[in-house]
Write a structure and sequence with these properties.
The complex is a heterodimer of chains A (about 325) and B (about 280). Chain A is of the alpha/beta class and about 325 residues long. Chain A folds into 2 domains: about 170 residues, Thiamin diphosphate (ThDP)-binding fold, Pyr/PP domains (Rossmann fold); about 130 residues, Rossmann fold, CATH 3.40.50.920. Chain A has a 7-stranded mixed beta sheet with strand order 3-2-4-5-7-6-12, with helices on both faces. A 5-stranded mixed beta sheet of chain A has the order 9-11-10-13-14, sandwiched between helices. Chain A has a two-stranded antiparallel sheet with strand order 1-8. In chain A, strand 4, helix 4 and strand 5 form a beta-alpha-beta unit. Chain A is globular, with a radius of gyration of 19 Å. The two termini of chain A are about 25 Å apart. Chain B is α/β, with parallel strands linked by helices and about 280 residues long. Chain B has one domain: Rossmann fold (3-Layer(aba) Sandwich), CATH 3.40.50. Chain B is about 40% helix and about 10% strand. Chain B is built from 10 helices and 7 strands. Chain B has a 5-stranded parallel beta sheet, sandwiched between helices. Chain B has a two-stranded antiparallel ribbon with strand order 4-5. In chain B, helix 9 links the parallel strand 6 and strand 7. In chain B, helix 3 runs parallel beside helix 4. The chains are: A alpha/beta (about 325), B alpha/beta (about 280). The interface between A and B is medium-sized, with 29 and 29 residues.
Chain lengths: ~325, ~280
Protein backbone atom coordinates (compact mmCIF):
# COMPACT_ATOMS: atom_id res chain seq x y z
CA UNK A 1 0.00 0.00 0.00
CA UNK A 2 0.95 3.64 -0.37
CA UNK A 3 2.96 4.79 2.59
CA UNK A 4 0.85 6.95 4.86
CA UNK A 5 3.93 8.79 6.07
CA UNK A 6 4.64 9.92 2.49
CA UNK A 7 1.32 11.79 2.39
CA UNK A 8 0.99 11.28 -1.35
CA UNK A 9 -1.76 12.85 -3.41
CA UNK A 10 -5.32 11.52 -3.00
CA UNK A 11 -5.63 11.69 -6.78
CA UNK A 12 -2.60 9.51 -7.33
CA UNK A 13 -4.25 6.61 -9.12
CA UNK A 14 -7.23 8.55 -10.43
CA UNK A 15 -7.79 10.08 -13.85
CA UNK A 16 -8.03 13.41 -12.11
CA UNK A 17 -4.36 13.34 -11.14
CA UNK A 18 -2.66 16.66 -11.79
CA UNK A 19 -0.06 17.03 -14.57
CA UNK A 20 2.48 19.79 -14.18
CA UNK A 21 5.91 20.52 -15.59
CA UNK A 22 8.81 19.96 -13.23
CA UNK A 23 10.13 23.16 -14.81
CA UNK A 24 7.20 25.01 -13.25
CA UNK A 25 8.36 23.72 -9.87
CA UNK A 26 11.90 24.84 -10.71
CA UNK A 27 10.70 28.36 -11.48
CA UNK A 28 8.51 28.53 -8.37
CA UNK A 29 11.40 27.24 -6.26
CA UNK A 30 13.71 29.91 -7.66
CA UNK A 31 11.29 32.65 -6.62
CA UNK A 32 11.02 31.23 -3.10
CA UNK A 33 14.80 30.93 -2.86
CA UNK A 34 15.15 34.49 -4.11
CA UNK A 35 12.72 35.76 -1.51
CA UNK A 36 14.58 33.96 1.25
CA UNK A 37 18.02 35.22 0.30
CA UNK A 38 18.91 38.45 -1.46
CA UNK A 39 22.16 36.94 -2.71
CA UNK A 40 20.35 34.39 -4.89
CA UNK A 41 20.75 35.28 -8.57
CA UNK A 42 19.60 33.38 -11.66
CA UNK A 43 21.53 33.00 -14.91
CA UNK A 44 20.05 31.79 -18.17
CA UNK A 45 21.43 30.83 -21.58
CA UNK A 46 18.59 31.81 -23.90
CA UNK A 47 16.29 29.12 -22.48
CA UNK A 48 15.13 31.15 -19.48
CA UNK A 49 11.54 31.26 -20.65
CA UNK A 50 11.59 27.70 -21.85
CA UNK A 51 12.66 26.23 -18.51
CA UNK A 52 10.74 28.77 -16.41
CA UNK A 53 13.74 30.42 -14.80
CA UNK A 54 11.86 33.44 -16.12
CA UNK A 55 9.47 33.28 -13.12
CA UNK A 56 12.44 34.71 -11.20
CA UNK A 57 12.88 37.50 -13.74
CA UNK A 58 9.33 38.67 -13.11
CA UNK A 59 10.00 39.11 -9.39
CA UNK A 60 13.69 40.09 -9.41
CA UNK A 61 14.67 41.52 -12.81
CA UNK A 62 17.89 43.00 -11.44
CA UNK A 63 19.06 39.62 -10.27
CA UNK A 64 18.36 37.80 -13.55
CA UNK A 65 21.31 37.54 -15.93
CA UNK A 66 21.19 36.50 -19.58
CA UNK A 67 24.34 35.11 -21.17
CA UNK A 68 22.90 34.03 -24.52
CA UNK A 69 23.54 30.65 -26.16
CA UNK A 70 26.81 30.21 -24.29
CA UNK A 71 26.77 27.37 -21.80
CA UNK A 72 30.47 27.55 -20.98
CA UNK A 73 29.95 31.19 -20.08
CA UNK A 74 26.86 30.19 -18.10
CA UNK A 75 28.96 28.07 -15.75
CA UNK A 76 32.05 30.26 -15.56
CA UNK A 77 30.30 33.61 -15.17
CA UNK A 78 28.21 32.02 -12.41
CA UNK A 79 31.44 30.76 -10.86
CA UNK A 80 32.76 34.32 -10.68
CA UNK A 81 29.51 35.58 -9.15
CA UNK A 82 29.57 32.81 -6.57
CA UNK A 83 33.21 33.52 -5.78
CA UNK A 84 32.18 37.12 -5.12
CA UNK A 85 29.46 35.99 -2.73
CA UNK A 86 26.25 35.46 -4.67
CA UNK A 87 24.30 32.18 -4.79
CA UNK A 88 23.81 31.65 -8.53
CA UNK A 89 21.26 29.24 -9.97
CA UNK A 90 22.10 28.36 -13.55
CA UNK A 91 19.93 26.29 -15.82
CA UNK A 92 19.44 25.19 -19.38
CA UNK A 93 18.91 21.92 -21.22
CA UNK A 94 20.94 19.21 -19.50
CA UNK A 95 22.56 18.06 -22.74
CA UNK A 96 24.33 21.44 -22.88
CA UNK A 97 24.81 21.97 -19.15
CA UNK A 98 26.43 19.77 -17.87
CA UNK A 99 26.79 18.17 -21.30
CA UNK A 100 28.74 20.89 -23.04
CA UNK A 101 30.27 22.74 -20.08
CA UNK A 102 31.23 19.74 -17.96
CA UNK A 103 34.88 20.72 -17.56
CA UNK A 104 34.02 24.27 -16.59
CA UNK A 105 31.63 22.92 -13.96
CA UNK A 106 34.31 20.59 -12.66
CA UNK A 107 37.06 23.20 -12.49
CA UNK A 108 35.38 26.52 -11.77
CA UNK A 109 32.48 25.27 -9.64
CA UNK A 110 33.35 21.91 -8.02
CA UNK A 111 37.12 22.18 -7.62
CA UNK A 112 36.76 25.88 -6.88
CA UNK A 113 34.11 24.87 -4.35
CA UNK A 114 31.78 27.79 -4.96
CA UNK A 115 28.01 27.72 -4.37
CA UNK A 116 26.64 27.43 -7.89
CA UNK A 117 23.37 25.47 -8.23
CA UNK A 118 22.92 23.85 -11.61
CA UNK A 119 19.57 22.93 -13.12
CA UNK A 120 19.53 20.38 -15.94
CA UNK A 121 16.25 20.61 -17.85
CA UNK A 122 14.98 18.40 -20.66
CA UNK A 123 16.42 15.19 -19.27
CA UNK A 124 15.38 11.74 -20.43
CA UNK A 125 13.79 10.44 -23.63
CA UNK A 126 10.52 12.10 -22.65
CA UNK A 127 11.96 15.28 -24.13
CA UNK A 128 10.13 13.82 -27.10
CA UNK A 129 10.06 15.19 -30.68
CA UNK A 130 13.32 17.15 -30.40
CA UNK A 131 15.05 13.79 -30.67
CA UNK A 132 18.28 12.20 -29.54
CA UNK A 133 20.47 15.28 -29.67
CA UNK A 134 18.37 16.95 -26.99
CA UNK A 135 17.56 13.93 -24.79
CA UNK A 136 20.07 13.96 -21.94
CA UNK A 137 20.59 10.39 -20.80
CA UNK A 138 24.05 10.76 -19.27
CA UNK A 139 23.86 13.70 -16.92
CA UNK A 140 23.46 11.80 -13.66
CA UNK A 141 26.67 9.93 -14.46
CA UNK A 142 28.46 13.11 -15.49
CA UNK A 143 27.61 14.92 -12.31
CA UNK A 144 27.79 12.21 -9.68
CA UNK A 145 31.35 11.43 -10.62
CA UNK A 146 32.55 14.94 -9.67
CA UNK A 147 33.73 15.40 -6.06
CA UNK A 148 31.95 18.13 -4.08
CA UNK A 149 28.89 17.91 -6.36
CA UNK A 150 25.51 17.10 -4.86
CA UNK A 151 22.99 15.47 -7.24
CA UNK A 152 19.21 15.56 -6.76
CA UNK A 153 16.53 14.13 -9.08
CA UNK A 154 13.09 15.23 -7.84
CA UNK A 155 10.06 13.11 -8.75
CA UNK A 156 7.51 15.83 -9.55
CA UNK A 157 6.80 19.55 -9.73
CA UNK A 158 6.05 19.78 -6.01
CA UNK A 159 9.24 18.02 -5.01
CA UNK A 160 11.54 20.05 -7.24
CA UNK A 161 10.21 23.24 -5.72
CA UNK A 162 11.28 21.94 -2.29
CA UNK A 163 14.62 20.76 -3.70
CA UNK A 164 15.45 24.20 -5.10
CA UNK A 165 14.60 25.87 -1.79
CA UNK A 166 16.71 23.35 0.14
CA UNK A 167 19.83 23.50 -2.02
CA UNK A 168 19.77 27.28 -1.84
CA UNK A 169 20.31 27.13 1.90
CA UNK A 170 23.96 26.09 1.85
CA UNK A 171 27.16 26.65 -0.10
CA UNK A 172 27.43 23.23 -1.76
CA UNK A 173 27.74 22.98 -5.54
CA UNK A 174 24.54 21.17 -6.54
CA UNK A 175 22.83 19.63 -9.56
CA UNK A 176 19.05 19.29 -9.94
CA UNK A 177 17.77 17.24 -12.87
CA UNK A 178 14.33 17.79 -14.37
CA UNK A 179 12.20 17.17 -17.43
CA UNK A 180 10.56 18.88 -20.38
CA UNK A 181 7.01 17.66 -20.36
CA UNK A 182 4.25 17.85 -17.81
CA UNK A 183 4.42 14.83 -15.53
CA UNK A 184 2.25 13.34 -12.78
CA UNK A 185 2.06 15.34 -9.56
CA UNK A 186 1.81 12.67 -6.91
CA UNK A 187 3.51 14.17 -3.90
CA UNK A 188 1.96 16.92 -1.82
CA UNK A 189 3.27 19.88 0.12
CA UNK A 190 3.20 17.59 3.16
CA UNK A 191 5.33 14.84 1.63
CA UNK A 192 8.60 14.78 3.57
CA UNK A 193 11.61 15.98 1.67
CA UNK A 194 15.11 16.08 3.01
CA UNK A 195 18.22 16.11 0.82
CA UNK A 196 20.09 12.87 1.32
CA UNK A 197 17.11 11.01 2.72
CA UNK A 198 15.30 8.54 0.47
CA UNK A 199 11.55 8.22 1.11
CA UNK A 200 9.45 5.08 1.01
CA UNK A 201 6.35 5.72 -1.05
CA UNK A 202 4.89 2.17 -1.10
CA UNK A 203 5.24 -0.58 1.45
CA UNK A 204 3.64 -4.00 1.40
CA UNK A 205 3.45 -6.07 4.60
CA UNK A 206 5.69 -8.78 3.18
CA UNK A 207 7.76 -7.26 0.39
CA UNK A 208 9.80 -9.50 -1.90
CA UNK A 209 11.25 -6.73 -4.02
CA UNK A 210 12.42 -3.15 -3.57
CA UNK A 211 11.84 -0.84 -6.52
CA UNK A 212 14.18 2.10 -6.24
CA UNK A 213 13.40 4.98 -8.57
CA UNK A 214 14.23 8.60 -9.17
CA UNK A 215 12.53 11.36 -11.10
CA UNK A 216 9.06 11.26 -12.69
CA UNK A 217 9.42 7.51 -13.34
CA UNK A 218 8.83 6.93 -9.63
CA UNK A 219 5.17 7.18 -10.64
CA UNK A 220 5.63 4.23 -13.01
CA UNK A 221 7.24 2.38 -10.10
CA UNK A 222 4.13 2.99 -7.99
CA UNK A 223 1.90 1.74 -10.82
CA UNK A 224 4.10 -1.33 -11.00
CA UNK A 225 3.83 -1.86 -7.24
CA UNK A 226 0.05 -1.73 -7.50
CA UNK A 227 0.08 -4.26 -10.36
CA UNK A 228 2.48 -6.55 -8.48
CA UNK A 229 0.25 -6.33 -5.43
CA UNK A 230 -2.68 -7.68 -7.37
CA UNK A 231 -0.35 -10.41 -8.66
CA UNK A 232 0.36 -11.33 -5.06
CA UNK A 233 3.87 -9.84 -4.97
CA UNK A 234 4.57 -7.43 -2.15
CA UNK A 235 7.05 -4.64 -2.71
CA UNK A 236 8.65 -1.50 -1.37
CA UNK A 237 8.97 1.58 -3.60
CA UNK A 238 11.72 4.03 -2.72
CA UNK A 239 11.87 7.61 -3.99
CA UNK A 240 15.65 7.85 -4.20
CA UNK A 241 15.86 11.52 -5.10
CA UNK A 242 19.36 12.23 -3.82
CA UNK A 243 21.84 10.36 -5.96
CA UNK A 244 24.73 11.99 -4.15
CA UNK A 245 25.09 11.81 -1.21
CA UNK A 246 22.93 8.71 -1.41
CA UNK A 247 20.92 7.49 1.59
CA UNK A 248 22.92 4.28 1.97
CA UNK A 249 21.10 3.29 5.14
CA UNK A 250 17.71 3.15 3.47
CA UNK A 251 19.11 1.36 0.41
CA UNK A 252 20.76 -1.28 2.59
CA UNK A 253 17.68 -1.59 4.79
CA UNK A 254 15.34 -2.30 1.88
CA UNK A 255 17.88 -4.66 0.30
CA UNK A 256 18.01 -6.65 3.52
CA UNK A 257 14.26 -6.60 3.91
CA UNK A 258 13.39 -7.53 0.32
CA UNK A 259 16.40 -9.45 -1.01
CA UNK A 260 16.13 -8.14 -4.59
CA UNK A 261 16.18 -4.72 -6.25
CA UNK A 262 14.94 -3.13 -9.45
CA UNK A 263 16.17 0.40 -10.12
CA UNK A 264 14.23 2.80 -12.33
CA UNK A 265 15.57 5.93 -14.03
CA UNK A 266 15.20 7.80 -17.30
CA UNK A 267 18.93 7.59 -17.94
CA UNK A 268 21.52 5.23 -19.36
CA UNK A 269 22.01 2.17 -17.21
CA UNK A 270 25.75 2.80 -17.20
CA UNK A 271 26.77 5.10 -14.44
CA UNK A 272 23.33 6.32 -13.41
CA UNK A 273 21.37 5.97 -10.21
CA UNK A 274 21.11 2.20 -10.56
CA UNK A 275 24.86 1.92 -10.84
CA UNK A 276 25.23 4.07 -7.75
CA UNK A 277 22.86 1.77 -5.86
CA UNK A 278 24.80 -1.25 -7.05
CA UNK A 279 28.03 0.31 -5.76
CA UNK A 280 26.51 0.61 -2.31
CA UNK A 281 25.08 -2.90 -2.24
CA UNK A 282 27.99 -4.82 -3.79
CA UNK A 283 30.25 -3.70 -0.96
CA UNK A 284 27.98 -4.55 1.96
CA UNK A 285 24.94 -6.56 0.90
CA UNK A 286 24.86 -7.74 -2.71
CA UNK A 287 21.42 -8.83 -3.90
CA UNK A 288 20.17 -9.67 -7.40
CA UNK A 289 19.39 -6.50 -9.32
CA UNK A 290 17.67 -5.45 -12.55
CA UNK A 291 18.10 -2.00 -14.06
CA UNK A 292 15.26 -0.19 -15.80
CA UNK A 293 16.50 2.69 -17.92
CA UNK A 294 18.06 3.35 -21.28
CA UNK A 295 19.90 0.24 -22.43
CA UNK A 296 22.97 1.77 -24.06
CA UNK A 297 21.04 3.34 -26.93
CA UNK A 298 20.36 6.87 -28.05
CA UNK A 299 16.76 8.05 -28.04
CA UNK A 300 14.87 9.44 -31.04
CA UNK A 301 11.95 11.67 -31.98
CA UNK A 302 8.50 10.61 -30.81
CA UNK A 303 5.85 11.40 -28.25
CA UNK A 304 7.13 11.10 -24.66
CA UNK A 305 4.92 8.21 -23.71
CA UNK A 306 5.65 6.33 -26.96
CA UNK A 307 9.36 6.68 -26.28
CA UNK A 308 9.11 5.47 -22.70
CA UNK A 309 7.13 2.54 -24.05
CA UNK A 310 9.58 1.76 -26.86
CA UNK A 311 12.63 1.97 -24.63
CA UNK A 312 11.18 -0.10 -21.82
CA UNK A 313 10.64 2.35 -18.98
CA UNK A 314 6.93 1.89 -18.21
CA UNK A 315 5.21 0.15 -15.32
CA UNK A 316 4.83 -3.07 -17.29
CA UNK A 317 8.58 -3.14 -17.92
CA UNK A 318 9.21 -2.71 -14.23
CA UNK A 319 6.80 -5.55 -13.44
CA UNK A 320 8.59 -7.79 -15.94
CA UNK A 321 11.97 -6.91 -14.46
CA UNK A 322 10.69 -7.70 -10.99
CA UNK A 323 9.51 -11.12 -12.10
CA UNK A 324 12.89 -11.72 -13.79
CA UNK A 325 14.96 -10.81 -10.77
CA UNK A 326 12.76 -12.79 -8.39
CA UNK A 327 13.78 -15.92 -10.31
CA UNK A 328 17.39 -15.24 -9.37
CA UNK A 329 16.69 -14.55 -5.76
CA UNK A 330 17.85 -17.16 -3.33
CA UNK A 331 15.14 -18.29 -0.96
CA UNK B 1 56.51 55.48 -8.16
CA UNK B 2 60.16 54.44 -8.05
CA UNK B 3 60.74 52.79 -11.42
CA UNK B 4 64.25 51.61 -10.59
CA UNK B 5 63.09 49.89 -7.46
CA UNK B 6 60.28 48.16 -9.35
CA UNK B 7 62.68 47.00 -12.06
CA UNK B 8 64.99 45.51 -9.47
CA UNK B 9 62.02 43.84 -7.83
CA UNK B 10 60.95 42.35 -11.16
CA UNK B 11 64.46 41.03 -11.61
CA UNK B 12 64.43 39.38 -8.19
CA UNK B 13 61.07 37.84 -9.02
CA UNK B 14 62.50 36.45 -12.25
CA UNK B 15 65.45 34.91 -10.43
CA UNK B 16 63.10 33.17 -8.05
CA UNK B 17 60.99 31.89 -10.94
CA UNK B 18 64.02 30.21 -12.44
CA UNK B 19 65.10 28.72 -9.12
CA UNK B 20 61.58 27.46 -8.38
CA UNK B 21 61.40 25.72 -11.73
CA UNK B 22 64.75 24.04 -11.30
CA UNK B 23 63.60 22.70 -7.94
CA UNK B 24 60.19 21.53 -9.14
CA UNK B 25 61.56 19.90 -12.28
CA UNK B 26 58.38 20.65 -14.20
CA UNK B 27 56.30 23.66 -15.07
CA UNK B 28 56.40 26.61 -17.44
CA UNK B 29 59.26 29.04 -18.03
CA UNK B 30 58.40 31.39 -20.88
CA UNK B 31 55.13 32.82 -19.60
CA UNK B 32 56.12 33.55 -16.00
CA UNK B 33 59.35 35.26 -17.08
CA UNK B 34 57.47 37.22 -19.72
CA UNK B 35 54.86 38.52 -17.31
CA UNK B 36 57.15 39.30 -14.38
CA UNK B 37 57.01 43.04 -15.08
CA UNK B 38 53.21 43.06 -15.19
CA UNK B 39 53.01 41.06 -11.96
CA UNK B 40 55.51 43.41 -10.30
CA UNK B 41 53.62 46.49 -11.41
CA UNK B 42 50.37 44.98 -10.15
CA UNK B 43 51.48 43.89 -6.71
CA UNK B 44 53.92 46.70 -5.95
CA UNK B 45 52.18 49.68 -7.48
CA UNK B 46 48.73 49.16 -8.96
CA UNK B 47 46.61 46.89 -6.78
CA UNK B 48 44.81 48.08 -3.72
CA UNK B 49 45.66 45.16 -1.44
CA UNK B 50 47.08 44.06 1.90
CA UNK B 51 49.28 40.96 1.98
CA UNK B 52 48.60 40.67 5.71
CA UNK B 53 44.87 40.60 5.02
CA UNK B 54 44.41 38.45 1.91
CA UNK B 55 40.62 38.38 2.46
CA UNK B 56 40.24 42.12 2.95
CA UNK B 57 36.78 42.79 1.50
CA UNK B 58 37.75 45.95 -0.36
CA UNK B 59 40.88 44.58 -2.05
CA UNK B 60 41.24 44.71 -5.80
CA UNK B 61 40.89 41.21 -7.26
CA UNK B 62 43.50 39.69 -9.56
CA UNK B 63 42.28 36.64 -11.45
CA UNK B 64 44.93 34.62 -13.23
CA UNK B 65 43.30 32.96 -16.24
CA UNK B 66 46.41 31.38 -17.76
CA UNK B 67 47.02 29.47 -14.57
CA UNK B 68 50.10 27.70 -15.89
CA UNK B 69 52.16 30.88 -15.39
CA UNK B 70 51.53 30.62 -11.66
CA UNK B 71 55.25 30.42 -10.85
CA UNK B 72 55.29 34.09 -11.79
CA UNK B 73 52.33 34.87 -9.57
CA UNK B 74 53.61 32.73 -6.68
CA UNK B 75 57.02 34.41 -6.80
CA UNK B 76 55.41 37.84 -6.82
CA UNK B 77 53.04 36.99 -3.96
CA UNK B 78 55.95 35.74 -1.86
CA UNK B 79 57.92 38.89 -2.48
CA UNK B 80 54.86 40.96 -1.64
CA UNK B 81 54.57 39.19 1.71
CA UNK B 82 51.57 36.85 1.25
CA UNK B 83 53.58 33.86 2.46
CA UNK B 84 57.12 33.01 3.33
CA UNK B 85 59.69 33.15 0.57
CA UNK B 86 61.10 29.76 1.52
CA UNK B 87 57.83 28.11 0.52
CA UNK B 88 58.58 28.83 -3.15
CA UNK B 89 60.72 25.70 -3.39
CA UNK B 90 57.66 23.53 -2.66
CA UNK B 91 56.12 24.24 -6.08
CA UNK B 92 54.33 21.14 -7.44
CA UNK B 93 55.42 18.94 -4.56
CA UNK B 94 53.08 16.68 -2.60
CA UNK B 95 51.07 18.58 0.06
CA UNK B 96 52.34 21.92 -1.21
CA UNK B 97 50.14 25.00 -1.13
CA UNK B 98 51.78 25.93 -4.41
CA UNK B 99 49.88 23.62 -6.73
CA UNK B 100 51.02 23.13 -10.33
CA UNK B 101 48.00 25.12 -11.42
CA UNK B 102 46.59 27.48 -8.80
CA UNK B 103 43.67 26.37 -6.65
CA UNK B 104 41.33 28.61 -4.73
CA UNK B 105 41.66 28.13 -1.02
CA UNK B 106 45.12 26.57 -1.09
CA UNK B 107 47.25 29.68 -0.83
CA UNK B 108 46.60 33.25 0.32
CA UNK B 109 46.42 35.62 -2.63
CA UNK B 110 45.00 33.11 -5.10
CA UNK B 111 41.48 34.22 -6.01
CA UNK B 112 40.38 31.28 -8.13
CA UNK B 113 41.28 27.93 -9.60
CA UNK B 114 42.65 28.08 -13.15
CA UNK B 115 44.70 26.17 -15.64
CA UNK B 116 42.15 24.97 -18.17
CA UNK B 117 42.30 27.91 -20.53
CA UNK B 118 39.63 30.36 -21.47
CA UNK B 119 37.57 30.68 -18.30
CA UNK B 120 39.32 33.54 -16.52
CA UNK B 121 37.61 36.46 -18.23
CA UNK B 122 34.26 34.78 -17.66
CA UNK B 123 34.97 34.35 -13.97
CA UNK B 124 36.28 37.90 -13.75
CA UNK B 125 33.20 39.18 -15.60
CA UNK B 126 30.86 37.38 -13.22
CA UNK B 127 32.80 38.80 -10.32
CA UNK B 128 32.72 42.29 -11.79
CA UNK B 129 29.01 42.05 -12.58
CA UNK B 130 28.19 40.98 -9.03
CA UNK B 131 30.44 43.64 -7.51
CA UNK B 132 28.71 46.29 -9.57
CA UNK B 133 25.28 45.00 -8.46
CA UNK B 134 26.37 45.82 -4.94
CA UNK B 135 28.09 49.07 -5.97
CA UNK B 136 31.45 47.90 -4.69
CA UNK B 137 34.45 50.13 -5.30
CA UNK B 138 37.22 47.60 -5.87
CA UNK B 139 38.48 46.72 -9.34
CA UNK B 140 38.79 43.37 -11.00
CA UNK B 141 41.88 42.51 -13.04
CA UNK B 142 42.38 39.43 -15.13
CA UNK B 143 45.63 38.16 -16.65
CA UNK B 144 45.26 36.07 -19.80
CA UNK B 145 47.56 34.50 -22.33
CA UNK B 146 47.29 35.17 -26.04
CA UNK B 147 47.03 31.46 -26.84
CA UNK B 148 43.90 31.04 -24.74
CA UNK B 149 42.13 33.49 -27.02
CA UNK B 150 41.60 30.44 -29.20
CA UNK B 151 39.07 29.14 -26.64
CA UNK B 152 35.40 29.82 -27.33
CA UNK B 153 34.64 30.32 -23.65
CA UNK B 154 36.91 33.37 -23.71
CA UNK B 155 34.93 35.15 -26.41
CA UNK B 156 31.60 34.23 -24.81
CA UNK B 157 32.86 36.15 -21.81
CA UNK B 158 34.23 39.04 -23.86
CA UNK B 159 30.82 39.38 -25.49
CA UNK B 160 29.10 39.34 -22.08
CA UNK B 161 31.45 41.92 -20.56
CA UNK B 162 31.11 44.22 -23.54
CA UNK B 163 27.33 43.95 -23.58
CA UNK B 164 27.19 44.77 -19.89
CA UNK B 165 29.72 47.61 -20.00
CA UNK B 166 31.77 46.10 -17.19
CA UNK B 167 34.07 49.09 -16.73
CA UNK B 168 35.35 47.80 -13.40
CA UNK B 169 37.10 45.02 -15.32
CA UNK B 170 40.59 45.26 -16.83
CA UNK B 171 42.16 42.38 -18.72
CA UNK B 172 45.86 41.96 -19.48
CA UNK B 173 46.78 39.92 -22.52
CA UNK B 174 50.22 38.35 -22.44
CA UNK B 175 50.88 38.83 -26.16
CA UNK B 176 54.07 36.80 -26.35
CA UNK B 177 53.29 35.21 -29.69
CA UNK B 178 53.99 31.63 -28.65
CA UNK B 179 52.07 28.58 -27.56
CA UNK B 180 52.87 24.89 -27.13
CA UNK B 181 52.91 23.87 -30.78
CA UNK B 182 54.68 26.98 -32.08
CA UNK B 183 54.01 30.62 -32.85
CA UNK B 184 50.41 31.71 -32.34
CA UNK B 185 50.05 33.11 -35.83
CA UNK B 186 51.11 29.77 -37.33
CA UNK B 187 49.02 27.58 -35.02
CA UNK B 188 45.76 29.57 -35.11
CA UNK B 189 46.11 33.27 -35.87
CA UNK B 190 44.84 35.77 -33.33
CA UNK B 191 45.30 38.95 -35.32
CA UNK B 192 43.64 41.36 -35.66
CA UNK B 193 43.34 41.05 -31.88
CA UNK B 194 42.62 44.67 -31.06
CA UNK B 195 39.84 44.80 -33.63
CA UNK B 196 38.28 41.64 -32.22
CA UNK B 197 38.02 43.13 -28.75
CA UNK B 198 36.73 46.43 -30.11
CA UNK B 199 34.08 44.58 -32.07
CA UNK B 200 32.75 43.31 -28.75
CA UNK B 201 32.53 46.83 -27.29
CA UNK B 202 35.82 46.82 -25.39
CA UNK B 203 38.39 49.57 -25.24
CA UNK B 204 41.89 48.41 -26.08
CA UNK B 205 45.31 49.70 -25.08
CA UNK B 206 48.57 48.30 -26.41
CA UNK B 207 51.81 48.57 -24.49
CA UNK B 208 55.32 47.26 -24.09
CA UNK B 209 54.70 44.59 -21.44
CA UNK B 210 58.19 45.09 -20.04
CA UNK B 211 57.90 48.81 -19.46
CA UNK B 212 56.67 49.25 -15.94
CA UNK B 213 55.79 52.89 -16.45
CA UNK B 214 53.66 52.00 -19.46
CA UNK B 215 51.93 49.23 -17.52
CA UNK B 216 51.06 51.55 -14.66
CA UNK B 217 49.95 54.35 -16.97
CA UNK B 218 47.76 52.00 -18.97
CA UNK B 219 45.94 50.92 -15.85
CA UNK B 220 45.52 54.52 -14.79
CA UNK B 221 44.07 55.28 -18.20
CA UNK B 222 41.74 52.29 -18.04
CA UNK B 223 40.24 53.59 -14.82
CA UNK B 224 39.12 56.66 -16.69
CA UNK B 225 37.17 54.58 -19.19
CA UNK B 226 33.68 54.33 -17.77
CA UNK B 227 31.75 52.82 -20.63
CA UNK B 228 33.66 49.68 -21.44
CA UNK B 229 35.83 46.95 -20.07
CA UNK B 230 39.46 47.42 -21.09
CA UNK B 231 41.91 44.99 -22.62
CA UNK B 232 45.57 45.93 -22.24
CA UNK B 233 47.54 44.03 -24.86
CA UNK B 234 51.02 43.62 -23.40
CA UNK B 235 53.62 42.92 -26.01
CA UNK B 236 56.06 40.66 -24.23
CA UNK B 237 59.03 38.48 -24.97
CA UNK B 238 58.48 34.96 -23.75
CA UNK B 239 61.31 34.01 -21.41
CA UNK B 240 62.29 37.66 -21.00
CA UNK B 241 65.57 38.15 -19.19
CA UNK B 242 67.08 34.78 -20.06
CA UNK B 243 68.72 35.03 -23.44
CA UNK B 244 68.69 31.37 -24.46
CA UNK B 245 64.96 31.16 -23.68
CA UNK B 246 63.72 34.35 -25.30
CA UNK B 247 61.18 33.99 -28.12
CA UNK B 248 61.32 30.21 -28.33
CA UNK B 249 58.07 28.24 -28.14
CA UNK B 250 59.93 25.24 -26.75
CA UNK B 251 60.39 27.07 -23.46
CA UNK B 252 56.63 27.41 -22.99
CA UNK B 253 56.39 24.21 -20.95
CA UNK B 254 60.02 23.35 -20.27
CA UNK B 255 62.02 23.98 -17.13
CA UNK B 256 65.78 24.65 -16.97
CA UNK B 257 68.23 22.03 -15.75
CA UNK B 258 71.06 22.95 -13.40
CA UNK B 259 73.45 24.21 -16.07
CA UNK B 260 70.71 26.20 -17.75
CA UNK B 261 69.63 27.63 -14.41
CA UNK B 262 73.13 28.85 -13.66
CA UNK B 263 73.29 30.50 -17.05
CA UNK B 264 69.82 31.98 -16.59
CA UNK B 265 70.66 33.44 -13.20
CA UNK B 266 73.86 34.89 -14.59
CA UNK B 267 71.85 36.55 -17.37
CA UNK B 268 69.37 37.97 -14.91
CA UNK B 269 71.91 39.16 -12.37
CA UNK B 270 73.99 40.92 -14.97
CA UNK B 271 70.95 42.08 -16.95
CA UNK B 272 72.10 40.18 -20.01
CA UNK B 273 75.75 40.98 -19.54
CA UNK B 274 75.13 44.69 -19.49
CA UNK B 275 76.39 45.02 -15.94
CA UNK B 276 79.15 43.28 -14.10
CA UNK B 277 78.36 42.26 -10.55
CA UNK B 278 80.75 42.16 -7.61
CA UNK B 279 80.64 38.38 -7.73
CA UNK B 280 81.97 38.27 -11.31
Amino acid sequence: MLSKKAKLSDEIFKDSIEFKGTKEGWGEGLVLAGEADRDVVVLVADTGGSIRSSFFEEKFPDRYIQVGVAEQALATIASGMANYGKIPFIGTYAMFSPGRNWEQIRTTIALNNVPVKIGGAHSGVSVGPDGATHQALEDIALMRVIPNMRVVVPCDATEIRKAVVEVAKDKKPSYIRFAREDTHVFTTNKTPFEIGKAEIFWESKDPHIAIIGCGPLVYEALLAARQLNSDGIGSVVVNNHTIKPMDENTILEVAKRCGAIVTVEEHQISGGMGSAVAEVLTKSYPVPMEFIGMQNKFGESGQPDELLEKYGMKAKDIVEAVKEVLKRKSS
Amino acid sequence: MDIEKLRLKANEIRQDIVKMLLESGSGHSAGPLGMADVFTALYFEILKHDPKKPNWEERDRLILSNGHICPGLYSTLAHAGYFSHSELTTLRKLDSRLQGHPERGRLPGIETTSGPLGSGVAQASGYAYAARMDQRKFRIYCVTSDGEHQEGNHWEAVNFAGKNNLSNLTVFVDRNGIQIDGYTEDVMPLEPLRAKYEAFNWSVLEIDGHNIEEIVDAVGYSKAIHDNPVAIICHTIPGKGVEFMENLPKWHGKTPDLGETIEALHDLRTLGGSIVGEHE
